[in-house]
Amino acid sequence: MKDTILQVRRLCKNFSGLVAVDQVSIDVRSGELHAVIGPNGAGKTTLVNLLSGDFSASSGTILFHGRDISRLAAEKRSRLGIGRSYQKINIFPSFTVFENCRLAAQSRAPRTLRWLRDARTYESVMNQALQALDAVGLASRAAEPALALSHGEQRQLEIGMCLATEPELLLLDEPLAGMGVEESIKMIELIGRLSEEHALLLIEHDMDAVFQLAKVLTVMVNGKVLATGTREEIRANREVQTAYLGVIEDPLA
Amino acid sequence: MTNITLPRIPLIFALLLLALFPLVGTTFYLQLGAKIMILAIFALSLDLLVGHTGMVSLGHAAYFGSAAYVLALISPKYEAANLWLTLPAAIAAAALLALFVGALVVRTGGIYFIMVTLAFAQMIYAVFHDTKIAGGSDGIYIAVRPALNIAGFKPLNLENPSEFYYLVLTLLALVFCFLNRLLHAPFGRALAGIRVNEQRMRSIGYPVFAYKLGAFVVAGALAGLAGYLAACQFGFVNPDILAWHQSGIVLMMVILGGMGRLHGAVLGAFAYVFFQEVFSTPALLGAYAKHWQLAMGALIVAMVLVLPHGIGGFIDIALRRYGYRVRGGKSQTAQ
Amino acid sequence: MFYLIQLLNAVQYGLLLFLLSSGLTLIFGIMGVINLAHGSFYMIGAYLAYWLAQWTGSLWLALPLAILIAFVLGLLLETTIFRRLYRRDHLYQVLLTFGLILIFEELRSILFGDDVHGVAMPALLNFSIPLTDTLSYPVYRLFVTAVCLAMAALMYFVIHRTRTGMRIRAGTSNRDMAASLGVNMPMLFALVFAAGVALAAFAGAIAAPISSVFPGMGNQILIICFVVVVIGGIGSINGALIASLAVGAADTLGKVIAAEYSAIAVYLVMAVILLWRPQGIANKA
């Protein structure tokens, strides 16, 4: 039985009258990829924002390793081991690819002598950044400015930045959005590898990818959880079919 | 890493020039030179905030002026104060003030930050101008420049223009080197990240508030150093030293020279004083020379509209056009 | 009775601040421009009133003329200079408008010198209403209060009840959306800017008989306006009204309690608000 790392209970978010997330409860276990799917406007990105700390919840609890982090600021949640990638690419465009990851890795460096020694002399930080870049396959592009990368590569960099902070839980918000076929295949492989060592919450619209990767799925509609279950359970669920999937042909058949 | 590589050779050359200048310069030019270098330290301190961390402070003169006032207030009436005691005290006072104000204002951002830094600086101005705490609008005189005595030994006599010049030059060089190290260190790199994408810095785990407050305090302390030296040189301190006009001038210097490059701030100070001298000579503008601020204002407007990257940026663009590889700045593969 | 006088002063000052600050906060809310020269427009209005009143012999003539000139000046400035600032970093806006302040101050110095000048109150209003045996209140100040109230009401009417006002409100909440819905943004911007300049000039003109005209008068009051905008929240007219009255009260109260520290009182209020609610009173977090 895998460890439940993240427990979300009855999470709500109101935006002056508009209920974006309504009593959502979800569990994420380590080594397990939990996908959240649903139509546009279902509240998926808002959910991720609530989990990462970019938004503060109106009510409900978020427990990380049993600890209540509902009121914790985003930077503190990151330090606890929660990494997050954004739907809209959120990197440091004018820095080099390597510097993007190095900066992320630096956030975890111990406090000593951070005012006067050149940042490049901190070996553990440099290595961590290189490892993260390697993991996402961007090591060869390290010296280039981040904005020279293609869209897909920038998405890989985003994930690389998350990895550089050595997270336990990864929150990925539509990492495949806007990607071409080849890039998607690479990204799906990457996500698959990551899900073996991390707890992963994935928001995605690409159904092929979702059904290929996810062990557990949650379907959200209008801010509420419609159903949670394994691949087969969700596929067979009548309500889910009417609300979102339509009658689906088994892509694995 | 971008934007912080320095053109080594020109810098060393410039330092040599500055160091050798007293051998040929007259007293007037020595004093002018010291004044420019003091303003350069002031501009460098603001560049850390504005150019490097992206925090546009319109109240930086408050820390410049407070340190000046500290010297004026603790200097004995007719004797030299002890520099070894008064300089750290003045810097500490400026840093403490920056800490208090910073704790309140750093939480805000964008346009709010600009306005509240201005407002707090104005409050401090009001304290010195309206109340009798420090001589009000009359100001305070510093009859004798501070002395560097230790155990009877007197390394420098600050009343001597060229010795004062050397002190300022040494301090400028030290501040420059310090900031250079700081910007290459993890702290400085984090500040750069905050300027480029503050939200992302938060989401990768940086306590952004603490970093920004740190930058604010360091900048305030360095401004205090400059203010102390200004008080030494001028021998007189009045509320104008804290006025928002002064804050605007130092901001202008930072942009004039090109933001985000340390040598830009120094260039900006030189350029500002240069233009001030040019605009205020009767030889050039005749009767309007006393209204030199009109020309200065027009220069600022023209510069913002035409040359947003200041003189330093203009030089970079010109160099690139002629095929020279310029270190730092955006790479050519960028769109 | 003494307190009544202070209250009246506070309201009068607060409403004057409101006229100035509403222009400032609108220009920022809609065009995204921070304009340090706004205080200079106040000064321009005051000096225009002084000069025109001398030239025409009547403040009643001078006031509308000053507003008209200021409006035209605003249109000119917007189309030539400010238009280029809209998409730029606040830093450059600050610098450019700071340069403008220098220009305006020196022009004032060249044209009018550096002395303080009085502006005569119109004879019609140049008397005081007796309140007690010893205390009386100048009618002109009541007139100023009344006029400011009328302008405030006019502003509310225009913004909340006319189509132009609707476009302004749309522009404040979402500039690009309003543009894509067909609102002629460039013209709207020019109008709003010119109106802001005219408002500031009007405030300066009408206050001139009370405060006199003197160098630096614009800059002094600009910073108070900044405090008002910070407290009230950027882009919010309602917030500007509440904050202006609060600042007016703080300033007046400060003068009563300890004249030396009255200026500081206003900034202290701002500091407290910042601690409690950094986004301003009227704005959401």
Question: Can you give keywords for this protein?
Answer:
heterotrimer; A: 253 residues; alpha/beta; Rossmann fold; 2 domains; 10 strands; 36% helix; 25% strand; globular; B: 335 residues; two-stranded antiparallel ribbon; 14 helices; disordered C terminus
Task: Write up this protein.
The complex is a heterotrimer of chains A (253), B (335) and C (285). With 253 residues, chain A is α/β, with parallel strands linked by helices. Chain A has two domains: 1-81 and 167-253, Rossmann fold (3-Layer(aba) Sandwich); 91-166, no CATH class. Chain A has nine helices and ten strands. In chain A, strands 6-7-8-3-9-10 form a six-stranded mixed beta sheet, sandwiched between helices. In chain A, strands 2-1-4-5 form a four-stranded antiparallel beta sheet, covered by helices on one side. The longest helix of chain A has 17 residues, at 181-197. The radius of gyration of chain A is 19 Å and the shape is globular. The two termini of chain A are 28 Å apart. The model of chain A has no long low-confidence stretch (mean pLDDT 87). By secondary structure, chain B is mainly alpha-helical. Chain B has helices at residues 8-20, 27-52, 61-74, 83-105, 110-130, 161-184, 186-196, 198-203, 208-234, 244-257, 262-280, 282-285, 292-306, 310-321, and strands at residues 140-141, 236-237. Chain B has a two-stranded antiparallel ribbon. Chain B is globular and about 55 Å long. Residues 327-335 of chain B have low confidence and may be disordered. Chain C is built from eleven helices and two strands; from the N terminus they run H-H-H-H-E-E-H-H-H-H-H-H-H. In chain C, a hairpin with a 5-residue loop joins strand 1 (128-130) and strand 2. The longest helix of chain C has 30 residues, at 2-31. Chain C starts with a helix and ends in a 9-residue tail after the last helix. The relative contact order of chain C is 0.20. The model of chain C has no long low-confidence stretch (mean pLDDT 85). Classes of the chains: A alpha/beta (253), B mainly alpha (335), C mainly alpha (285). Chains in contact: A-B, B-C.
